[in-house]
Amino acid sequence: MALTADRQALIWKTLNETRGKIEPSEYKNYIFGIMFYKFLSEKAQLWLDEMLRGEKWADIWAQDPEKAKNFMQSRLGYVIEPGDMFSDWKEAINTDKFNIMMAKDALTRFDNGVSPEAKSDYAGIFSDIDLGSSRLGANAQTRAATMMDWINLMDEIELDTDADVLGDLYEYLIGMFAANSGAKAGEFYTPHQVSDIMARILTAGRENQETYTLYDPTMGSGSLLITTASYMKNAGVQGAIKYYGQELITTTYNLARMNLMMHGVEYNDINLRNSDTLAGDWPDGTVDGVDSPRMFDAVMANPPYSQKWDSENREDDPRFKFGVAPKGKADYAFLLHGLYHLNNNGRMAIVLPHGILFRGAAEGRIRQALLENRNISAVIGLPANIFTNTSIPTIIMVLEKNRATDDVLFIDASKGFEKQKNSNKLRQEDIEKIVDTYLKREDVEKYAHVATMDEIRENDFNLNIPRYVDTFEEEEPIDLVKVNQDIVSVEADIKKEEAELLELVNQLAVNDDSKAVIDSLKNLLSGGSHE
Question: For residue 507, what is the DSSP state?
Fold first, then answer.
C-alpha cells in the first residue's frame, strides 16, 4: 500500500492550516516529533497487546514499575508509561483534561526511560519539541491549544503502522518542508531522484548479499541510507543491514533517527552519531595509537559544497594520505574520508560541485593521485537547479578501492530533466538512462564516453566533462536566399505602412503651431528615410 498523491496533498494542506506563525524550518521539528511519538506509542501498544493478552498495561505497571519498565525496555529499547501513550493524550483532549504539562512530562519520562543499549538511538530525540516556546502561544493555555491541534491533526492523518506507508509520508513531508525552508533545506534533504541514482549504482550486482553495511558521513535526514538499503533483498530483515551515519546538526540528526525507525529499521541496526565528520573520525578508527578503521560495503554522501574546514596539521591523518584539501574547500576532505572507510570490494557515490573536476593546486594533486590509484570509476554530470538549496550544477562521482582498470566513465546528464516552477526535476526516464549507461559502460554519442588513462593524462588529469563528452549540436545552415526574400518582404511591408500613415497625415487639420511638425513628418514618410 502506498500513500496516494491526493492523500499527500490533503495532509500538507492540513499541516499548513495549523502552522500559524512558525517558520517551516522549525515547524517540521514539532510535526515530525509528534508523528514519531505516535509511531512509538502505537508500536508499544501493539507489542503490549500481543504480550499481555488482555491484561492492562496500567495494572502490570502498578504491580511492579521497575519490572514492567525492564520488560518493555528489553524488547523496544524504550518505555512509555501508562497514561503517556499518544492515545492517552487524545483521550484527555476528548474529555477536556489535556494540559501542556501532560505532553511535556511524558516526553521527559520517555527520555529517562531509554535503555542503556538504545541511548544512541533514542536519547534526546524529542529535544527539538520546545513546549514552552512563545511561538506556540503566549501562555500555557494557548500553548496547550496549539498542541491539541497538532495531536488532533496526527490522529486525523491516521498513520498506518505499515512501514512503507509511514515511510512514504515521512519522505513526502521532508521534501515539502525542504521546498519551503529555503537555504536551510540543504542541511537535511537530498532529492529522492538523486538518492535513487546513487542507490542503484551502489547496489548494482550486490543486491543479493546476505549482509550489508552502509555509511553516510553527512547523512542529513538519512534518505540516502534508506533508499540504498531498499534495493537490497534483505531490506527489512533484522540484523541483515547495518546503518551507520554522522551528522553535525543536532536537529537534523534527530530527523535521521526518526526517519530510519519510521521506515521499519530496528534500533539495534542503527549506528548514528551527532558529530563533526572531518574534525573527528569514526570512534573506532584509532585505538591505542593503532589505526583499525571500520569499513563499509557502501559509502554515500551529499556533503555541504566547498565549505571551509580546519585543515591544519592533517598530514598525518590516515584518511588524507592522498593529500589535504585546502581550508577554503572541504570537498576532497569529505571524499577522502568516505573512500578511507570503504571496504576493499565496496563502492562509493558522492555528490559534489563541478569544481572538483578541474581545480588545481592541492585539489589537482589529490585528483591525480586518485586517478593513478584507479579509484575514480565514473563522473556523472547532473542538471542545474535540482537541489532545493542551490541552483549550481553538480556531479555524482563513483569510486572504488580496488579496480582492475583505470578508465573513467563520463556521463553528461545535464540536459535530461523536466522544468518546474522554481526548479528542475529528473524524470524517471532520465534516471533510467543514467543508471543503464553506468551499467553498460559504453560510449553513447553526445551523452557518455569511457576515457582511457592516456586521454586523461593528455588533459593533465582535468576531468571537466566537456573535455570527454562532446554535446555540441551544429546549427542548421542558414538559407541566404530565404533570408533575402524575407528582407524584401519586410521592406515592402514597411513602405506600405508608411504610405498609409502619410495618407492619414495629409488628412490632418493644419494650423500655424503644427505646420512645421507635420511638414517634417510628411518629408520623412515620403522618402526621407529610404533611398
Answer: T
HSE toward the beta carbon, residue 356, CA cutoff 13 A: 29
- 8 A C-beta contact, residue 283 and residue 272: no
The closest of 327, 326, 386 to 351, measured between CA atoms, is: 386
Q: Provide mean pLDDT across the span 490-518.
A: 71
The cell for 372 is: 593513478
C-alpha cell at 302: 551529499
Burial class (CB in 10 A: 0-12, 13-18, 19+), 208: exposed
Closest CA to 152 of 82, 92, 110, 111: 92
CA distance 98 to 65: 24
Question: Contact at 8 Å (CB) between 294 and 281?
Answer: no
Grid coordinates of 438: 553506468
d(CA 197, CA 450): 19
Q: How far apart are CA 13 and CA 180, in angstroms?
A: 13
334-375 confidence digits (pLDDT tens) = 999 999 999 999 999 999 999 999 999 999 999 999 999 999
Element (DSSP H or E) covering residue 201: helix 192-203
Each residue's pLDDT tens digit, 364-404 = 999 999 999 999 999 999 998 887 667 788 999 999 999 99
Question: Please, what's the largest Cα pairwise distance for the chain?
Answer: 113
Reported pTM: 0.82
How many Cβ atoms sit within 10 Å of the Cβ of residue 160? Answer: 14
Given a contact cutoff of 8 angstroms between Cβ atoms, the answer to whether 349 and 397 are in contact is yes
| Residues 223 and 190 sit within 8 Å (Cβ to Cβ) | yes
Q: Are 460 and 428 in contact (CB under 8 A)?
A: no
The one-letter amino acid at 433: K
CA 403, CA 453: separation in Å to the nearest integer?
13
